[in-house]
């Protein structure tokens, strides 16, 4: 009976090591993703180097679900550029085209007006109450590239939160049950 107890202890030990190994693997995956994200932030100079187009306001140029790659530079912003900006009091950034740039000669401050390509009017109604222009601190970055339709998974997960939990659970289950 002694060797049966040792075998059971051995099996428990192996399972414990496998669980520990899988936990470490999951931690490494999450840490790697975070390192890549932070690296992109450093390289691009943008607080959010990748964004998903959430509306049809930029069609036909960008469609809902396209992923945009952003870069932030010290170069002046010009009319015609596509920028991503945040509005005070709103959580979701907006992707629109610069239609007017005004620089005050006395302060050097730059004022920017935007509009979605598919919209009839400029974005003043989207800005915070009383705000008529965007300032530099509102700008998250300039669009420098895009990947068509690749952001649909983000849109679906955002619009269907239950699906997000199912997906996270399935991925966790996959990591736990996978054999190396």
From TrEMBL:
EC number: 3.4.21.89
Protein location: Endoplasmic reticulum membrane
Annotated coiled-coil segments of the chain: none
Matches recorded under CDD domains: Peptidase_S24_S26
Biological processes annotated in GO: signal peptide processing
NCBIfam families: sigpep_I_arch (TIGR02228)
UniProt xrefs under InterPro entries: LexA/Signal_pep-like_sf, Peptidase_S24_S26A/B/C, Peptidase_S26B
Membrane protein topology class: Single-pass type II membrane protein
GO cellular component annotations of the record: signal peptidase complex
Principal cellular location given in the protein's record: endoplasmic reticulum
Catalyzed chemical reaction(s): Cleavage of hydrophobic, N-terminal signal or leader sequences from secreted and periplasmic proteins
Gene Ontology molecular function, alphabetical: signal peptidase activity
UniProt similarity note: Belongs to the peptidase S26B family.
Protein name: Signal peptidase complex catalytic subunit SEC11
All copies of domain Peptidase S24/S26A/S26B/S26C, residue ranges: 43-144
Organism: Quillaja saponaria (Soap bark tree)
């Amino acid at each position: 009976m002694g060797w049966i107890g040792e075998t059971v202890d051995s099996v428990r030990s192996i399972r414990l090591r496998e669980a520990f190994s899988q936990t470490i693997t999951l931690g490494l995956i999450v840490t790697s993703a975070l390192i890549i994200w932070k690296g992109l932030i450093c390289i691009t100079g943008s607080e959010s180097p990748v964004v998903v187009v959430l509306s049809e306001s930029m069609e036909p140029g960008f469609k809902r679900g396209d992923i945009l790659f952003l870069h932030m530079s010290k170069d002046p912003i010009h009319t015609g550029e596509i920028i991503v900006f945040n509005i005070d009091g709103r959580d979701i950034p907006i992707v629109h085209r610069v239609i007017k740039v005004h620089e005050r000669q006395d302060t050097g401050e730059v004022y920017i007006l935007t509009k979605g390509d598919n919209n009839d009017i400029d974005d003043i109604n989207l800005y915070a109450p009383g705000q008529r222009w965007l300032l530099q601190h509102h700008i998250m970055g300039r669009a420098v590239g895009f990947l068509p339709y690749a952001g649909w998974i983000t849109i679906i997960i955002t619009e269907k939160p239950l699906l997000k939990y199912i997906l996270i659970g399935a991925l966790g289950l996959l990591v736990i049950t996978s054999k190396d």
